[in-house]
Specification:
This protein has helices spanning 3-13, 42-46, 69-80, 85-102, 108-120, 124-143, 151-165, 167-178, 183-193, 196-204, 227-244, 252-293, 295-311, 319-329, 335-356, 360-374, 379-389, 391-409, 436-459; strands at residues 20-25, 29-34, 53-57, 60-64, 209-212, 215-218. The protein is of the alpha+beta class and 469 residues long. The strands form two sheets. It has a four-stranded antiparallel sheet. The protein has a two-stranded antiparallel ribbon with strand order 5-6. Helix 15 runs antiparallel to helix 16 (360-374) and helix 17 packs across helix 18 (391-409). InterPro entries: Glu_permease_IIB, PTrfase_EIIB_Cys, PTS_EIIC, PTS_EIIC_1, PTS_IIB_1, PTS_Sugar-Specific_Components.
Length: 469
């Protein structure tokens, strides 16, 4: 099915253009906010050629496409007018009031997951690219091809570090969009956190606080931080909207942003950002303590049940902790490591299905989704094959749990944020040049894939054809 035709059918079966209030995409899924979820025919959409499955998650109707999602989204955006700013604004103005009236009240956990997912999805290309560059730079250093004092190293380090160092700016834009407030005001808030005066004082460590109208402002280095900017932009959005409601239209452009910044930035520097910084630091310390003191249990449970975490979208809630670990310790010993192992387990299971099956379509889907899983994208394998045929899914869970526990006990660490697949291997090269961490990563990948592959063949599988349901 052509991308245009598929996009048209998905929109039609989702209740039509008028039922869609928002459409975005992540690595493998189209994500729709619908005015009326009951109008979406999830079964019919799931049976379309080119669709792996559907899910309702965190207030969104999600259509799992796989690696072709970007091309399908382009057609969806064309049809909905999301590529045309005038059409987009007109559509948003038309549906805004009705969407708010029909929007279901989410519980607090769903709301938090939705905020974190919306914050990180748009910036993934930047932090994944930077994480990959960190791994490549480590390899160049270990191999002796680049000296740490050379200009080449300095430039490559800038490439690898910029996205993480200035992460508050990236998050400011995506969070501002999530809360429907001007992105550039969000960037100004990030600029306040990253202002050279604040950073220089924090690095010097000689001044703990400064005073603003007798209110102490703690001096904190907010580079690479996550929670401070997220909380700050959320606060700013409420302040902006509260002010804007009472300011006459003739002076909105001048008065609203001025008062917003005047109120927001002192509050952020005095209270919100330090609270966010403490939250992030203690979460990172807590997770690190858990994997140091109860690693075998944490690795076993997280490795076995990670597929369910991915299915429910809760893995996005762990993104800030992973970034915070990388910022605080220089490595990530928890979920990023486990995710690599469980992805290899899904790959092993789906390749076993393809190997065993005599059905040409299932073989083709198994091989293509297996390759995606090896590269770090497991939704096609998990939703398209393993979960539907059950036993391969169980095999992947068992393998993920066993090997997950093993690599945590052995102290495997990731030194960069990259999609957890074979392409992430450079991020497991230790900056100190020791080969131990890289060897553990290789052995973990081989073990997880092999155990899952063998278990899938051993458990057997009656289904030999693609089952869309």
């Amino acid at each position: 099915m052509e991308n245009r035709e598929l996009a048209e059918k998905i929109i039609q079966l989702s209740g039509g253009e008028e039922n869609i209030t928002k459409a975005i995409h992540c690595i493998t899924r189209l994500r729709f906010n619908l005015k009326d979820d009951s109008k979406a025919d999830s079964e019919a959409i799931g049976n379309l050629n080119g669709v792996i499955g559907t899910r309702y998650q965190n207030g969104q109707f999600q259509v799992i496409i796989g690696n072709n999602v970007k091309n399908v989204y382009v057609e969806v955006a064309n049809i909905l007018g999301l590529d045309d700013e005038s059409k987009k604004e007109a559509k948003e103005e038309k549906i805004s009031k009705e969407a708010k009236e029909n929007k279901e009240h989410k519980n607090i956990i769903s709301s938090i997951l939705d905020i974190i997912a919306s914050a990180f999805q748009p910036i993934l290309p930047a932090i994944i690219g930077a994480g990959m560059m960190k791994g490549i730079l480590a390899i160049l250093m270990v191999a002796g091809w680049v000296s740490g004092e050379s200009g080449t190293y300095q430039i490559l380090n800038i490439v690898a570090d910029s996205a993480f160092y200035f992460l508050p700016f990236l998050l400011a834009v995506s969070v501002a969009r999530k809360f429907d407030v001007n992105e550039y005001l969000g960037i100004v808030v990030a600029g306040a956190l990253m202002y050279p005066t604040i950073l220089d004082l924090a690095k010097a460590g000689q001044v703990k606080s400064i005073s603003f109208l007798s209110i102490p402002i703690q001096i904190v280095n907010y580079s690479s931080s996550v929670f401070p900017i997220i909380l700050s932009v959320i606060l700013m959005s409420y302040i902006y909207k509260a002010i804007d409601r009472y300011i006459p239209k003739t002076v909105k452009l001048v008065i609203t942003p001025t008062l917003t910044m005047l109120i927001t930035i002192p509050l952020v520097l005095a209270f919100i950002a330090p609270i966010g910084s403490y939250l992030g630091n203690y979460l990172a310390i807590g997770v690190n303590w858990l994997f140091n003191h109860a690693g075998i249990v944490a690795g076993l449970l997280l490795g076995a049940f990670n597929p369910f975490i991915v299915m429910t979208g809760m893995h996005y809630a762990l993104f800030p902790i992973m970034i915070q670990n990388l910022s605080t310790f220089g490595y990530e010993p928890g979920y990023l490591v486990i995710n690599l192992i469980t992805n290899m387990a899904q790959a092993g299971a789906v390749f076993a299905v393809a190997f065993r099956s005599k059905d040409k379509e299932l073989k083709s889907v198994g091989v293509s989704s297996g390759i995606s899983a090896l590269l770090g994208i497991t939704e096609p394998a998990m939703f398209g094959v393993n979960l539907k045929q059950k036993k391969p899914f169980y095999a992947a869970m068992i393998s993920g749990g066993i090997v997950g526990a093993a690599v945590v006990v052995l102290g495997l660490k990731a030194y960069g944020f990259v999609l957890p697949g074979l392409i992430a291997l450079p991020t497991y090269v230790s900056p100190d040049g020791s080969p131990k961490n890289f060897i553990i990563a290789i052995l973990g990948i081989i073990a997880s894939f092999t155990i899952s592959f063998v278990l899938t063949l051993t458990l057997g599988n009656k289904a030999t054809k693609i089952n869309k349901n």
